């Protein structure tokens, strides 16, 4: 037995506490969608229209999916992730049918957060001329989104993309994905927090979090998770070989950093 087996299953409910950095993103999500979702009275009093969705954009692995999941956790809502490429169907009307089914099953499972990833794969964009068949898919999605009364239906829509310039402008109008939020690569302070989040609950000793943050410029949250996983794996392998248990140390993390590369260079 011992410490290696202690970690067990992944925690079910992810909340904002599990997300490092991204303070402005958390604030914006809080104001724009969580508040009207959990306490609609104020918005009703002031006749403030709620509804529509937010669109998260930024480089891969920096927490778009993760913060959407945490948003569901904050609202104690079900998280329903959808990849746009999975719903696209070459048969006429197939994609529209898939979309309607997803929305109706989400409705049946409210409260829910519907997360639509790869929003750039839908509709008109630079790499793909607009076609009539795409148009009706876009219209179907817009109809579904505009039909949601956030406060009464208890359903939130969060879209995401790595290529915001490729998102069909029709999605960016009021009542649709009218709020665009940049999910940035983590700065030094955020990287420190992410290391702390990922290493807590694991057996560690003498960790210099400032050093880790400083040495991982351009690492995404996913890259940091990978560093921690790599270091953990090395320690477990060693323990299995030697039979001597020990916690994760700085040297393991240094080695893991040396063996990985940052992925957010282009941004
Ligand atoms: P993609 O554009 O490729 O879909 P993404 O932005 O949706 O990427 P996520 O899937 O949210 O990226 O991130 C991958 C993993 O990296 C998450 O499951 C999480 O463990 C970790 N991660 C990323 N950013 C953060 C962060 N800010 N705080 C904590 N963990 C993070």
From TrEMBL:
Key word Cell inner membrane present: no
Keyword ATP-binding annotated: yes
Limits of the AAA+ ATPase domain: 50-187
Molecular-function GO terms, alphabetical: ATP binding; ATP hydrolysis activity
Domain of life: Bacteria
Keywords: ATP-binding, Coiled coil, Nucleotide-binding, TPR repeat
Family assignment from sequence similarity: Belongs to the AAA ATPase family.
Name of this chain's protein: AAA family ATPase
Organism in which the protein naturally occurs: Brevibacillus antibioticus
């Amino acid at each position: 037995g011992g410490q290696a087996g202690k970690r067990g299953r992944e925690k079910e409910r992810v909340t904002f506490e599990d997300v490092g950095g991204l303070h402005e993103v958390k604030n914006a999500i809080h104001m724009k969608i969580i508040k009207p979702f959990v306490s609609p009275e104020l918005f009703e009093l002031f006749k403030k229209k709620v509804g529509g969705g937010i669109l998260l954009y930024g480089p891969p692995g920096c927490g778009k999916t993760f913060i959407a999941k945490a948003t569901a956790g904050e609202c104690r809502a079900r998280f329903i992730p959808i990849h746009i490429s999975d719903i696209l169907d070459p048969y006429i009307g197939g994609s529209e049918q898939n979309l309607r089914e997803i929305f109706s099953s989400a409705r049946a499972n409210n409260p829910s957060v519907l997360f639509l990833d790869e929003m750039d794969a839908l509709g008109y964009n630079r790499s793909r001329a607009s076609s009539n068949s795409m148009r009706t898919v876009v219209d179907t999605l817009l109809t579904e989104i505009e039909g949601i009364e956030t406060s009464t239906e208890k359903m939130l829509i969060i879209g995401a993309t790595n290529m915001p310039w490729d998102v069909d402008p029709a999605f960016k109008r009021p009542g649709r994905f009218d709020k665009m939020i940049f999910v940035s690569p983590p700065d030094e302070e955020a990287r420190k927090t992410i290391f702390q989040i990922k290493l807590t609950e694991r057996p560690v000793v003498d960790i210099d979090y400032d050093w880790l943050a400083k040495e991982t410029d351009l690492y995404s949250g996913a890259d940091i998770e990978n560093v921690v996983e790599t270091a953990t794996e090395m320690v477990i392998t060693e323990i299995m070989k030697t039979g001597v248990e020990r916690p994760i140390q700085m040297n393991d993390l240094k080695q893991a950093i040396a063996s990985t590369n940052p992925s957010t260079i282009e941004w």
